[in-house]
Fold each of these.
Amino acid sequence: MTLNIGVIGTGAIGREHIRRITNNLSGGKIVAVTDVNPEAAKSAVEQFKLDAVVYPDDKSLVAAPNVDAIVITSWGPAHEASVLAGIAAGKYVFCEKPLATTAEGCKSIVEAEIKHGKRLVQVGFMRRYDRGYEQLKQAIDNRFIGEPLMIRAAHRNPEVDDNYTTDMAITDTLIHEIDVLHWLVDDDYTSVQVIYPKKTRHASSHLKDPQIIMLETKGGIAIQAEVFVNCKYGYDIQCEIIGEEGVAKLPEVPGIVYRKEAQLGVDLLMDWKQRFIDAYDRELQDFIDSIKATGEPKGPTSWDGYIAAVTADACVKAQASGVKEAVTIGDKPAFYQNVVHQ
Ligand code: NAP
């Protein structure tokens, strides 16, 4: 059986997902597309030679009887309405982050999905499908390094444009660490504080860069996450777990080691799209395969989308206040207790 998919939003990542579902993955077919700009939707159909209908809006695409699943890749503020429409129609939903732009919006999605009675939604937190993070999780789960005590993480981009604002360091950048770090240690955040080191001269006048975000978990793990989006030298994702009996570190991206002109070196990536390209393939393949095998997706849940939104809100509050702010998540509903990702 082929999973018939409709794509809402045919911009950059929408087209990337259309390309991978059409050319790289198995078991899924793009049968419908829509975009606020109908010409963009039409051009995506032409670009990928799709046998797909262009719908005028998300509601009509969701209602199409041959659409089994929707992939939401429109801009963030439009996600919530499309996800809720998908759930109301009983369609499977793969939603790029953010699930909704507010914690309340994510909560209403959680409630709608629980009321529906079956898991329908997967959120596009693709780092959980990166092989390096998977290995790190295995090392933590089997207590190879003992109980995790501390985490040091860094998210560095070579540069950002002038539209990038201080809060986007949380909502666009740290959001991936927010998701993957609590998943790695299977714990919830309880507090956050943000401090600003000396500012780089490469940041625009309105942007605070770098930033250090210090999170604590219910179990007492202390996390120090750095966001530095004008680091100049490359796109660099670091993660180190310090445990009672050892340390486990995210592997470096493999590359040829050069010896030249009295130097030993490896090329670094400059473009974030390349870093997790394999993980994007694997998350969508898992979405398709899990639905076909079990009737439910098993990737990051609506509850994970809610955790990310609540934590991001507290981080943004801490950016402004400079003091420790509480992260109040609440208990995971039983509905989401037994979801096994990998
Ligand atoms: P983008 O290039 O601006 O694409 C968004 C597309 O959706 C545009 O064509 C936009 O049209 C269209 N759109 C906006 N509102 C819509 C609506 N109500 N219905 C249908 N189409 C609508 O942005 P992008 O970079 O692809 O990002 C899309 C989403 O993916 C964002 O939420 C972003 O955060 C997320 N994302 C996630 C990752 C990741 O690492 N997981 C990476 C990149 C992006 P107009 O251009 O005419 O407004």
Amino acid sequence: MNKNKKGTIEVICGPMFSGKTEELIRRLVRGQIAKKNVSIFKNAVDNRYSDEYVVSHNQNKIKCQPIKEAKEIFNFSEEIDIVGIDETQFFDLSIIDVCNKLANDGKRVIVAGLDRDYKSIPFKPMANLLAHAEKITKLSSICIVCGDYAYFSQRLTDDKTQILVGETDEYEARCRKCFKP
Ligand code: ZN
């Protein structure tokens, strides 16, 4: 355990289209400006975008490492000050232990992900990490039906699997009133 640095866990959650990845990148870019060594990890199940780097709007690049299991983060984490994890809901429950170990070792851990699935059932890794976190940010989207703030992800297809990598035509953001489970 690193006694010189104090680690933390931050969670960025919310429904689809609420800007979770954007907020994650924003925090990591600020870390880069502060000369910290930062990296993003994401589950290899999600190959929607480039495997090598995540590029922000102002062309800052952050190294992105696709992994299959949470514990693989330890293979890279020694040199990293700030660990970003995107689409955290895709990992199994071992991610909780991994995040706590990284934070106990003095790292700033920032996890982003969906807090609930399309039936409004909490994703277990996220629900647990929310309980362990020092700082929580819940983002909203805009309800496609009524224009109010939206915290639910409405699935528009009949697919019944919990993990469905989202595209715009398969989901839309809804408020509590307009959400139809
Ligand atoms: Zn609504």
